[in-house]
Amino acid sequence: MVEAESSIHADGVAADVRPIRVTGKTSAAQQGPDAMADKTTESDAEAISEVQLLLSELRTALSLMRTGIAILALPLSVFSVLVATSRYYDALNVLGFLAPLAALCAVLIVFGGYLIAHSWRKVRRIDRLIHRIKMEHSVLAKYIESID
How far apart, in Å, do the first and last CA atoms of the chain sit? Predict the structure, then answer.
């Protein structure tokens, strides 16, 4: 915004007219209703972008949970095969194979459980952030389902 500065003499004549550049931001209320609507639209667009980013993070967390469930299911499958075929071997004779296999299955169970717990915490955190954004921007309320 550019304004003109002038010095007025005693006789009422403007002597010197120079442009002055105003370098401060003016508020949306000072600029008028159109500027306030633009600010609101920008704010809503920013909120939608934030929600889109959070939803992409949510997809990542859910895929991590899916991986954890698959890793957790692997030892269960191995043990079910061992139980189903247990009449064909003596456990004491193959203990050298069963002990490392049991240790590996235990590690896989712990790792799968960790992945599931970690992704569950992430999903809950993302849900809370989306809920907070929804409460701050009423335009999003009609598009986002409540998590309560």
Answer: 48
- DSSP code at position 92: T
Where the chain has pLDDT below 50, the residues are 1-7, 19-24, 26-29
Q: Name the residue with tokens 């304004």.
A: 3
Q: What angle do CA 44, 144, 67 make, to 5 degrees?
A: 115
Q: Would you state the structure tokens that stand for residue 47, as one six-digit string?
A: 């909120």
Is residue 55 classed as helix, strand or coil in its secondary structure?
A: helix
Return phi, psi of residue 22, to 5°: -90, 125
Give the C-alpha distances (Å, rounded to integers) separating 36 from 45, 52, 62, 110.
14, 24, 39, 54
> Which pTM was predicted?
0.65
Q: How far apart are CA 124 and CA 134, in angstroms?
A: 15
Burial class of residue 68 (count of CB atoms within 10 Å of its CB; 0-12, 13-18, 19+): buried
The answer to whether the beta carbons of residues 97 and 141 sit under 8 Å apart is no
Question: In terms of DSSP H, where are the helices of the chain?
Answer: 28-31, 33-84, 95-136, 138-141
